[in-house]
Fold Oxidoreductase domain protein.
Amino acid sequence: MKKLRFAIIGCGSITKHRHAPEAKQNPNVELVAVCSRNLEHAKAIAEKFEVENVYDDYEKMLKEIKPDAVIVATPNYLHADATIKALKEGAHVLCEKPMATTEDECRMMVETAKEMGKFLMIAHNQRFNSAHKKAKEIIQSGELGKVLSFKTTFGHGGPESWSSDKPDTWFFHKEAASFGAMGDLGVHKIDLMRFLLGEEFVEAAAFITTLSKKYPNGKPIDVDDNAVCILKTQSGAIGTLTASWTYPGSEDNSTVIYCEKGSITLYADPKFSMIIRYANGQKAYFELDTMQTNERQTKSGVVDEFVDCILTNTPPKISGEEGLKTMKVVFACFESAKTGRIVRIDY
């Protein structure tokens, strides 16, 4: 079988530690080009992963290479532009989260994919964790009854220890990132909860602020480093979502879902990725997998899923439309934080 010719736009840490190695490991992929506006970063990725073609202009790369598929892993403000141009050049696109910086950009990405007859997938990797998939099965089975509430958290010490341009990373600059911890981490948990619960959020209330992070010159960063949100689902379940860049020395990537007949705890225990606590006092422990961290990367499954979708001509489950629904919740949380009001989410 002819291999799919892949190109990657953006050569930071997520490409180095996840996208490039996963592309190289897939037997159906040939990684033919990498591109970054920082040419040194692109050259370093090309050398490490034995990629022949290196560019600092993705429009030129797309026209000359004509890849079958493109991974967009740029700073957030370029997601929409790079994705739309890749789609228009006839490539399927896997775009990093957050999908884009405005709802209009998200819609244009979705519409362009439809217009060009190409797949657009958003790289929400937490859907692929074994314990998350198992928890979804249990919730859908009705074994624990109706979901009543939840709490989900994603917090670590911040991107400055992880980003390829540390310490004054693009993640801290509003013109490049648009969002801070909420767009970097909170978006993961919004998508995850939509996946686990199988329904949409209809109302949001949030505090989103900057509590601690500073630029190297001592000035506070101009994006958020903490967000705490209250979300309500279509069925009336309510829960909290926390995203933080100020959990020094540790990472919390856990979720607890409270149902009528018990609760499910995910990735809160170092050994058991899922623990069910039944209302009658019984407990069930599942040692399924471990959560990926910036320091400990394992195969996320995102690139493999994207490749399978292309080869089987099957629309991705984490489509552009799905990405837009997740981003609607993100935008609602920011509106709530700005106005001090509960925001209704319109689909």
Remarks:
- The chain has a mean pLDDT of 96.
- Residues 156 and 327 are 22 Å apart (CA to CA).
- Residues 127-299+327-344 form a domain with the Dihydrodipicolinate Reductase; domain 2 fold (CATH 3.30.360.10).
